[in-house]
Design goal:
Blueprint: H1 11-16, H2 20-50, H3 57-75, H4 77-86, H5 93-126, H6 128-134, H7 137-160, E1 164-168, E2 173-177, H8 183-225, H9 228-268, H10 275-299, H11 301-311, E3 318-323, E4 340-345, E5 354-358
Antiparallel strand pairs: 1-2, 3-4, 4-5
Protein name: G-protein coupled receptors family 1 profile domain-containing protein
Main location: membrane
GO molecular function: G protein-coupled receptor activity
């Protein structure tokens, strides 16, 4: 049986002196989360690659989230799994620096992506003219690229300032070791890249939700007047806002324990919590990589259908996007309100050709 581990026990000793049952349980949990995170992120990327209808502006945010989850499961989680199996850090000091840097980059990038989607939803519900001008697919891709560059630059400047990443036996990952002379700068960076994005996200979604509720009255009037194009447009904007809000609400609860542990350590100036508390917070962060694809499948019908085709090993279908006049759409249909048809040309495993109509 496992011996009781007091909260004041040395974390490194507690990690090394685990019983067999604990080692197996922790390792299996971490391994399953690593595999699930990789497969779920891969499925999202594969769905976008296979289906042209999943390559519009709004899907670029989903793709960015999926790439973040893939990188997390490939370059961060395996080191944690190895540490839990062996009971100590399994690789070199350089690998520890790499993992700590990757965690910092992905954390900042996730928050910046959430902030960008919140601004997207706010402008879509308040300033439609500006939204259709600045939030085309190419501009969104540029904005996401800037987010990636900023996310790479901030932790790099932190490490070049003389700080390093060290293995934390409680979390099972390498984390930043802040020197006393750099503590103020590190605190400012946390405020800028954690607190400020949360404030912006909350404000934008509150305003967007309020504006959509106001537009609901107009939608009922449009339905009575037979203006279904306007009604469908309102419904689509509402579904997109609900999807990205679900991303945030579904992810943040998995991050809260880790932030709570950081706050406790910051106030006590020591690692005073039990190792199990630190480890659970790490596993919850890893589990968050599996949440967004599940939310996407539940709330987006196109993704759900493509996921089913992937799981059934169905061949890729060629989707040709054509408007009502028979011309192939070259613009992003998100900004083209006319009715369009999708002609889905099936491969050998399909016996009929289906035609689906949709309105944006």
């Amino acid at each position: 049986m496992c011996a009781h581990q007091d909260g004041s026990s040395d974390l490194q000793t507690a990690l090394r002196n685990r019983c067999t049952e604990t080692v197996v349980t922790e390792s299996l949990t971490s391994g399953c989360l690593t595999i699930a995170g990789f497969l779920s992120g891969l499925m999202v990327c594969l769905a976008i690659y296979r289906n042209v209808r999943l390559r519009y502006t709004i899907h670029m945010y989903i793709l960015s989230y999926a790439v973040i989850d893939l990188v997390m499961s490939l370059f961060v989680m395996p080191f944690t799994l190895g540490a839990l199996v062996k009971g100590e850090w399994i690789s070199s000091a350089s690998a520890c620096q790499f993992q700590g840097y990757a965690i910092s980059v992905l954390g900042i990038l996730t928050l910046l992506t959430m902030t960008l989607t919140a601004i997207d939803r706010y402008l879509a519900s308040t300033r439609l003219a500006s939204y259709t001008t600045f939030f085309k697919r190419k501009y969104v891709c540029v904005a996401l690229a800037v987010c990636w560059l900023v996310s790479f630059a901030v932790p790099l400047s932190f490490t070049l300032n003389g700080n390093s990443f060290v293995f934390h036996p409680g979390y099972g990952v390498c984390r930043a070791e802040v020197k006393n002379e750099s503590y103020l700068r590190a605190s400012i960076l946390k405020i800028v890249f954690v607190v400020v994005p949360f404030i912006v996200i909350a404000s934008c979604y509150c305003r967007a939700s309020a504006n959509l509720q106001k537009a609901y009255k107009n939608a009922k009037r449009w339905a009575q007047d037979g203006r279904m194009v306007n009604v469908n447009s309102w419904r689509e904007e509402e579904s997109k806002t609900r999807l990205f809000a679900a991303f945030i609400l579904g992810t943040l609860p998995f991050w809260v324990p880790s932030y709570a542990c950081d706050v406790v350590d910051a106030f006590t100036h020591e690692q005073c919590l039990p190792r199990s508390v630190y480890l659970v917070s790490t596993l919850l962060v890893n589990a968050s990589c599996c949440v967004k694809p599940l939310i996407t499948a539940f709330m987006d019908e196109d993704f759900a259908m493509e996921f089913k085709r992937i799981l059934k090993f169905r061949k890729t279908r060629k989707v040709i996007d054509i408007n009502v006049e028979g011309r192939k759409l070259e613009e992003d249909p998100k900004f083209m309100p006319e009715t369009r048809k999708y002609y889905c040309e099936m491969k050998e495993d399909d016996t009929i050709i289906k035609t689906e109509e949709s309105t944006v």
